[in-house]
Each structure stands twice: as C-alpha cells, then as structure tokens.
Amino acid sequence: MAAVLDSVRALFAQDAFTIAVENPGDVVARETLLDRAMGPNRRRKSSEALRRNRVPAEGLALVARDSSGHVIGTVRLWNVEAGISPAGEPVPALLLGPLAVDSAHEGKGIGAALMRAAIAEAKTRDHGAILLVGDAPYYERFGFFADKAQHLVMPGPFERHRFLGLELKDGWLEGAAGLLVASGRKLARAPMRRAA
What we know:
Elements: H1 2-12, E1 17-21, H2 27-38, H3 46-51, E2 61-66, E3 71-84, E4 90-96, E5 100-101, H4 110-124, E6 129-133, H5 136-139, E7 152-153, E8 163-167, E9 177-182
Parallel strand pairs: 4-6, 7-9
Antiparallel strand pairs: 1-2, 2-3, 3-4, 3-5, 3-9, 6-8
C-alpha cells in the first residue's frame, strides 16, 4: 500500500491534498462528511444494507487530507459475494462506496485520486472485481460499465442503469449471476456487561 500511496502523494502534492489509509481517528470526520455530502437518507440505500455492521475490506478504506490533515474526501470498499459463478461457486468481489468529497474542495481531482488509489490498491491486494452504484458518465472513465453487472442484483431497490462493474482480472464476473451478499468481516462489538 505504501508504494501506491507514495505515488499518489507525489502526483497530487501540488494540489495540497494527500491520500492515506483511514485511521480510527477519522471516524467522526468521515461520518460528518458523508452526512453532508450524501444527505439524511444515505443509510437507507441498498448499498448500505451490504455495509451495515461490517468492516471495510483490508487496506481499502482511504481518505483524502488537506494540507492541515483534515479529512476532505473518503472512499471505502467492502467484501461481497457477487452472485454465483456458472460452476455454482460464490464470486468474491468488492463493493465501492460511498465516495464523497467535501463541497469546499470539489473540482480539485480529489474524487478521481481516491478512485485511482482504491482501484490500484484493490489490484495490489489481488481482488478480481469492483462493483458500485453510481453515475455511469463519472465512473466509466475508471473502467466501470453496466454490462459487467447485468446479471447481478442488489438487495432492495436499486437503479439498474447505475449498477456498474469493473473487472480487475479479465473474465472475473463472466457468467456471475444473482444477489450481492455481504461477506466481509463483521464489526466487533464491545462485550455487554450484565447488571449485578
């Protein structure tokens, strides 16, 4: 991960932001940013059902920081099973989202930098495909297309034309069909104390 992030840092240093792996101290800033960027209904989306009570895929929770170290962008990827292969086996994949950039920093290439860093790190970690729900005109430039997800469905309502896939390994999603299911690690919960 360090090599990928070092090259991103060098590339975007002139724009006064860096890309880094999210740390536990980023939680409040990330959640505040997502609430502002995505609105009050963000937790009702079908994608959220796959993320709920899960931990992002290892090394694939990234933030953009301004020159003062404040979180100004975020992207996370989550382990899912992308339906079943023609051989009847679950197809491991990643679900990207949400991607958000602070409105005061839009137009600086932060979202694109987060996307490129996330895709590069997913490749480095040997993942086969990434899926997302988003605007095709934006995500097609990164290689995401609806035909890669055409036989897959999200849990709950979703807009078919916005359900996109990117194969990191050729043919990874070929023949995959069915419902996306969360497969990542569950969020650890603190043990509950019993009253004496």
